[in-house]
Amino acid sequence: MIWTTVLFLITISILVAIHEFGHYWVARRCGVKVERFSIGFGPTIFKYKSKSGTEFVLSIVPLGGYVKMLDSRVDDVSDEEKQYAFDQQSIAKRAAVISAGPIANFILAFLIYWVIAQVGIMTYPVKVGQILPGSVLSSTNIPQGSELKSIAGIKVNDWRDVQLALVGEIGQNSMAIEYVPAGQNTPVTEQVNITDWNVDLDKEDPVTALGLVPQRLKLLPILREVISGSAADKSGLQAGDKIISYNGITLNDWDNFASTIEKGDTMSLNVEREGRTLSLKLTPEMRTVTGQDGQTIERGFAGLTPSTDAVVTQYNPLSAVWQGVKQTGFMMKVVVKSFYQLVTGALSLKNLSGPVTIAKTADQSASYGIVSYLYFLAFISISLGIVNLIPLPMLDGGHLLFLLVEKIKGSPVSDQIQSVFYRIGFVLLMMVMGIALFNDFSR
């Protein structure tokens, strides 16, 4: 619980700091005086004043932040300093400062995807193992073993891409699925009627709801990863080790091996390492987890990952740029579609998530490794950027809307009208947050 909270605060702090730094950096470049750059609320734990006069503040509760700029509408500003006030800048400069926050979040996501592309992207064959009888896809001609190539025109490289592409199609009447049948080279495109496709993302993933069962990966007895400090690490196991047998049983079925680990009993292992055979003892670490029925159970955890027939693709720094741009654009499209579906009712409000779910997801993704956590961080950063561009008062998008009106009518929106819209925006945001928190605790 403590680690989950700490990780959540770290995640939020990173995203808020990047967002606010975007506002700060562009404001300084536009000649605006920034009086305070603050991360968090409550009592101050760190304060520093730069030569430019900006006060950098870190507060004890890092659940937000702000950049306080000189503004003649709310501050007593001398004639000499008016040129540095935010409200005295051109519409273009003010728009640049306001939009810089969300753009900074998009840039962060791009940089994360750029780094991941260089580290190596593991892709799994997007092959159909089975079409469930009575499902939406049961009336299609997609044969078992087919490799999916695109969903609704969006290219898919792994099942994660398939999930995200399907989320964007919820509420539609039909979608195109492109695939290559097993043993063939020519792609086939089939238009699928999804009018009767009902999916509750809170309870099931869109792939299963559609009737798709992915073809299982071939799990190899060679360890791809051993988590530092885990039971496997303490037993002496290393990445690259080949497990020959456990408790005298030849390892031919990884599922049976995993089931034995879950029981939590000490196991005798025969391991091959660099041509030598080693005998090791593995005592799984018992953890409390939530079962499919919602009940908590004790389960053994070893902290090891088998190799698979997945392909790891690494890109050089230059080619990784395109991968970063492509993945960022893909995720932005998915997030925008999801928000649109929430507004139109195609996607249930039960799918809204608040801080509790975000914290749990951050913890879960981190437990899978740094790359998994970085994917999560990039997704949340993109979501934060897009949410802030929604044209609601109190959000960056609302400020941009006021600037657009000012540009059209030739004068700023009156303080009275802005005040009314701010109140409306505040109520709407509180309602959304209330729904998200309700969903969190309902889960």
Automatic annotation (TrEMBL):
Its EC number is 3.4.24.-. Its main location: membrane. Pfam families: PDZ_6, Peptidase_M50. It is found in: Membrane. It is a multi-pass membrane protein. The keyword Hydrolase applies. Its cofactor is Zn(2+). Residues 198-275 form the PDZ domain. Keywords: Hydrolase, Membrane, Metal-binding, Metalloprotease, Protease, Transmembrane, Transmembrane helix, Zinc. The chain crosses the membrane at residues 6-26, 95-116, 370-390, 420-438. It comes from the Bacteria. GO terms for molecular function: metal ion binding; metalloendopeptidase activity. GO terms for cellular component: membrane. Signal peptide: none annotated. GO terms for biological process: proteolysis. CDD domains: S2P-M50_PDZ_RseP-like. SUPFAM superfamilies: PDZ domain-like. Belongs to the peptidase M50B family. This is Zinc metalloprotease. It comes from Zophobihabitans entericus. The lineage of its organism: Bacteria, Pseudomonadati, Pseudomonadota, Gammaproteobacteria, Orbales.
